[in-house]
Write a structure and sequence with these properties.
- There is one protein chain.
- This protein has a 17-stranded antiparallel sheet, covered by helices on one side.
- It has helices at about 85-90, 285-300, and strands at about 10-20, 25-35, 40-50, 50-60, 75-85, 100-110, 115-130, 130-145, 145-155, 160-170, 170-185, 195-210, 215-225, 230-240, 245-255, 260-265, 275.
- It has a domain at about 180-304.
- It is built from 2 helices and 17 strands.
- The chain is mostly beta strands.
């Protein structure tokens, strides 16, 4: 400890076990630190919890907001294999429905609650909105009110999802994504063992709302769909999530089948549903015969 007694400079090696902050257990840590002017400068910072590591260096304010209006953080943080659930809780993003193992590097400046900066991340063995995926990656831009995820890429079985997203610190979000060649049998929403659908899915999705009242729209196309190993053909449709209710319509067409349907499914307890479908027609020949009969009947009725 050096300098004036009222405002000393404290330099040393810090270590601790079971470190907790922001209602989150971070693990065991150590760092070389310098404390001065209500800042702590960290070098060789390391926090371990299980297999995960967080390495940090830079300037951190010991309190905020600061009376001198100085920045609260100017630091680089490297994360390896950290569970995303605990990080979401630390930054009050519990409603963000994404889990997995996070790795990445981030450079943050400005305020603790309104950071600026950039970075990149990957998430392994993740789950987003109830849907598992193998790996996701994106570059990050922190703008003070939230974080933008650019160049978002997500691997799902043999397919991929690409797009962009924004997550606001106030619980808002927006996104637009598209998916290609995703096997239906690997999609959690189509996990019906007795009549397991199979085929390749393509889709586009976009939404903008709050995590407390989610809203998004999906357009999808399923090529060469089979249900319980019975071929169905091409299936297209739309889905719209509004809060706790999904509305949608679907159309299936092949040489053997033409089917349309609409419906509503509640996501609340009880899962109330209201589904309707049009009567299927057997094949294209039957439809042509019915059309010929209708035309003939109209022609006859037009003569006195």
């Amino acid at each position: 400890m050096t300098g004036p007694l009222r405002r000393p400079r404290i330099e040393g090696l810090f270590s601790g076990e079971g470190l907790r902050a922001w209602d989150t257990l971070w693990g065991d840590g150590s760092a070389r630190i310098v404390v001065q002017n209500s800042y702590v400068t960290v070098t060789d910072g390391l926090i371990r919890k299980g297999p995960s590591e967080i390495r940090a260096e830079g300037l951190y304010s010991l309190g905020y907001p600061r009376h001198d209006d100085g920045e609260e953080i100017n630091a680089r943080v490297r994360v390896n294999d950290r569970d995303l659930d605990s990080l979401r809780h630390a930054f009050e993003l519990d409603d963000w429905p994404v889990s997995g193992r996070l790795s990445g590097e981030f450079h943050l400046t400005g305020g603790y609650e309104t950071p600026l900066g950039f970075g990149a991340m990957t998430i392994d063995d993740g789950v987003a909105y109830g849907e598992p995926f193998q790996k996701a990656s994106a570059s990050l831009r922190f703008d003070g009110t939230g974080v933008r995820l650019d160049g978002l890429t997500m691997a799902k079985a043999t397919g991929a999802v690409t797009g962009a997203a924004y997550v606001g610190w106030d619980g808002t979000y927006s996104f637009n994504v598209s998916g290609q060649r995703i096997p239906a049998e690997r999609v959690a929403a189509f996990a019906f063992p007795k009549v397991q659908p199979s085929g390749l899915i393509e889709f586009t999705a976009a939404g903008s709302s709050t995590f407390a009242d989610p809203r998004y729209d999906v357009r999808f196309r399923m090529n060469s769909l089979s249900v319980a190993q019975e071929p169905v053909g091409l299936v297209t449709g739309t889905l719209a999530l509004r809060g706790t209710e999904i509305n949608g319509e679907v159309e299936a067409s092949s040489q053997k089948l033409a089917l349309t349907g609409t419906g509503r499914i509640s996501l609340e307890r009880g899962n109330d549903a209201d589904l309707k479908r049009a009567k299927p027609q057997r094949n294209q020949i039957d439809r042509q015969e019915q059309a010929d009969i209708a035309i003939a009947e109209c022609a006859q009725s037009s003569h006195p």
